[in-house]
Amino acid sequence: MTSQPARTDTPVLALRGVSKRFGAVQALTEVDLEVHGGEVVALVGDNGAGKSTVVKAISGVLTADSGVIEWEGRPVHIGRPHDAQALGIATVYQDLALADNLDVVGNLFLGREVRRWGVLDEVEMERRSRELLDTLSIKIPSVRIPVASLSGGQRQTVAISRSLLGDPKVVILDEPTAALGVEQTAQVLDLVERLRERGLGVILISHNMADVGAVADRVAVLRLGRNNGVFDGHATSQEEIISAITGASDNAVTRRAARGQEVPAAPVDDPVEPADGTEGDK
Amino acid sequence: MTTTKDPASQPAVVVTDPRLVVAQRGLGGAVSETWRRVRGGELGSIPVIIGLVIIWAIFQSMNSGFLAPSYLSQISVDIVATGMLALGIVFVLLLGEIDLSIGSVSGACAAILAVANQRWGLNELLSILLAVVVGLAMGLIHGFFFAKIGVPAFIVTLAGLLGWLGFMLWVLGSTGSYNLSNTNGLIDRLTNTYFAEVFWSYALAALVALGYLALGLYGSYRRSKAGIPTRKPVEIIIRAVLLGVVLFAIAFVFNQARGLPLAPVIFLVFIVGLDFVLRHTSYGRKVFAVGGNVEAARRAGINVTAIRMSVFAISGTMAAIGGIFFASVNQNITKSGTGQQILMYAIAAAVIGGTSLFGGRGSAFSALLGVLVIQSIAAGMNLVGITDYAQYMVTGLVLLAAVVIDSVSRRSQRASGRA
What we know:
The complex is a heterodimer.
Chain A: E1 13-22, E2 25-35, E3 40-44, H1 51-59, E4 66-71, E5 74-76, H2 81-87, E6 89-92, H3 104-108, E7 115-116, E8 119-120, H4 122-135, H5 152-164, E9 170-174, H6 182-197, E10 201-205, H7 209-215, E11 218-223, E12 226-232, H8 238-246, H9 252-262
Parallel strand pairs in A: 3-10, 3-11, 6-9, 9-10
Antiparallel strand pairs in A: 1-2, 1-4, 4-5, 7-8, 11-12
Helix pairs in contact in A: 5-6
Chain B: H1 26-39, H2 46-62, H3 69-94, H4 102-118, H5 124-149, H6 153-172, E1 178-179, H7 186-192, E2 194-195, H8 198-225, H9 233-256, E3 260-261, H10 262-280, H11 282-292, H12 294-299, H13 304-330, E4 332-333, H14 341-352, H15 365-384, H16 388-415
Antiparallel strand pairs in B: 1-4, 2-3
């Protein structure tokens, strides 16, 4: 595990032995996860591996049955989403939750409008929006057009920047590139790297191994609700991570890749894409 | 999407982004901007104003008495009752919901007003306050069942339509009819007051135009001080002058008749006040957010239930106020209440004026424009002598046209990415 220059020593956020059970299903068993400031931790796993359950436990949507969540070394209780936000954990969900009919400024400040004598201070909100987007090098044609007219990548960057307004220390991104094209994916990955440069801890949930390899410092693999290894994001090959995700070096993905080599005429599909799409394990 | 080679080295939000068509300035820019909006389905109030001009031209050609100052002055008073209901409906439509109960609520509140004043002997001001509070309570009841219990608004307010109609009949009791024609009483004066001195209409027109100018220039000053792109002062002055010309023309027409009528002034105060609430307070922002994306609003920490209940309370309150104006115009409350068509007219007015049935888009001013169209048609047909059945059919067609425009513009907005 290489140590990154901007990384802090104590993890900002740490899960220790977190378990969660839904009826007859043991969704999480003794899961550990650490996030330091200034690092990107990719959380990967197949559908049903427990990624979403981990995120929900961190963001306060669910409460874990057992185990400890530590914030800057101290155990904390996260009982509802508000607790997580108060600590400094921001979550960007896959569906973004933007109001299409409001403009970029309206969405950024939704629920925390700046007021002046009780009246919305549009000037101040617009100024701060531009400042925020500037520091993140986000390019948006205008902060005064409805979000509906933005591209998918721009909408994603708006959603991520909105999560930064609360000055969080950890940002959780749930499948930020799932619905994006090549150029837009690159923009979002650029933004993820800028978050890291600002010293934030980023938890990146993704099915896309190319994205994970591109930005992740560490890759935490979940398999069937258990930890299945933490890898160095820069030194580990995609094949190794895929083996950890599927639980064996002989799996559907490698067999498929091997078939592709035997029959040169058949083009090899991107071997890292799971066959059932990238919709996440909701 | 972007073709720039090195994104990191460029500033993020350039003041004039080359890809941004919206950023054009000046008069030429304003014209092409308007054209782009029309093509993109953001029709705004253009079709309504064109429709209004056509309606006026048609009736004027059929009867030259239509555009006479006295008739226009009468229309301006007659729009107020329906307009108040439409103003409340705008809020409900912004949530993407519907309130079918407002006709019955306004009738029931008018009945409360009459009974409180005539049978219980309350003074007129207290009777008006009581009627408004009852309307608010009725709206809260609808809001409770819709927002807390989760019954569809259509059904809740349909129940309200029937229930409050029965309530009104019960309140009116065996008497069945109350006469409110207390000349120079407060209720009578609401719609029967005219400021005959020429000064008042012009003063009000000047006040509104100058207020618009001052607020516009102040906003522009603050924006340029904060380094944000803004309208040029010239553009603001041109707009203020145009507004002033229109207002002085209206004032001139009023002065040709009986002077400045009080009722439309009250209506205007309500419109400007509620427009302010919608566009410049965080409450209004929350209403738009809930109408645009409920889940986003909830995640942003907005109390969706409270917003929904409050919107139905506003709708009930405005229905009660409309009922009071109806009582003031008609001076007589009978078992027919405020009539069956006021509900459809109010909803039609809001939609015709440009508030979307699909939620999230609309403005308080749409109530004014829409109710002008509706009332112009009704008044014109009365003048020309067209019978009831044709009036209903024509109004129905106008409503259908408005909804078609709404749906089509929504579709083309989708196509140009502005849903």
